[in-house]
Amino acid sequence: MKFIDKSLNKAAGNLLVANFLDSRRNPSTNRYSKINYSTHPTHPFRIKLRDALRDLFLDEQKNLCCYCMRSIDDSATIEHIVPKSVTTQKELNQYRHIPIIKNNVCLQSVFEKAKRKLKTPPFPLEIAYENMVASCDGKIIDGIPKDTTAKFCNNFRLSKFVEPLFYLRNVMNDIEYKPAGLLVPKNVSYISSIQNVGLDYITLKRIRQVWYHISVENIKDIENADTKKKRNVILTINLISLPQAKRNQLIADFKTTTFWNILLQYKWFYNYFRTHYPIKKR
User: Which of 3, 94, 201, 248 has its CA 20 to 30 A from that of 167?
Assistant: First the structure.
């Protein structure tokens, strides 16, 4: 996980949302309408705002999932830090210790019930720029056929409370990815957030463990391992220190095209492990 600097596109993002709100206000009634988040193809948010915001998220996140560090693109989902289900100030207050939320996000009902034009920020939580980031859909292939159930990230979390660790400027010092694939926070209070977003999912741990071991290779050799034979060589040589049963299972799985392609979606971990576990010290 890495720090997401929302200041990079803050002006552009807030302008998009402010203009959208203005377009959804009826001057004759002084009321806002259809200012909620929606993926329905004919909804104003979906038509006018979603794709433009998602492009900003992908830009500031370098096309990486906010949670699991998977490479994502235009198929990325939008994650709300304060869930869309939050409707009371008491619920919102759980997140107000986060400066970027406290100063920029309010209840949806503040705008939906308004009888005059409101100043911004704050913005209604369903469409507030600072309340949204890009996430993968949390689905992964564990075998064949494809499992379409979300196992982690946005669609797994639903409305559970999650501390947005990616808003911590020093998040890279606050959590550690271990050689065995574990994600370990230095602050124990973050454990529940990690669990609530599914970052302890077994396949994610296996992916991270494989990346630790093969990160001694040249990244181009890894990316160009387009046959089972090439992948088998890389895995066999570099997983040699693991217990035999675990080693054999990882090799059997990840030398396949399906698993190798999934592995490559997480190549952010290549540089992470080379940086935090220098090869000369292993």
Answer: 201
